[in-house]
Protein: EGF-like domain-containing protein
Amino acid sequence: FRGHWVGRACELCAEGWAGPFCDVPCPKGGLSGDVCTGRGFCLDTRTLDGDRASLCDCIPGYVGDACETECPGGAAFPCSGHGSCSSSTNGCECTASNETGHWGS
Structure:
């Protein structure tokens, strides 16, 4: 059998592995080499051309392929509370709303 499986019935991917066959390594980072730098969870997805790609779903306040980048404003108060941290820019996307009054890009 291929893949890295765990569970009573070998139905779960072992830590650090993803994909339908548990054969896609999760991104690692940081000095410890933890999966998603210890700041997220490994997900399995398919790219637009159908290829498999593993990626990290980062906890709030962190972005990057392996959640290695702390958002501006710090993890405790990302984007000064006026936006959300964007993995596409590795920075903040400001909230634009007449109600909240926060503007920017």
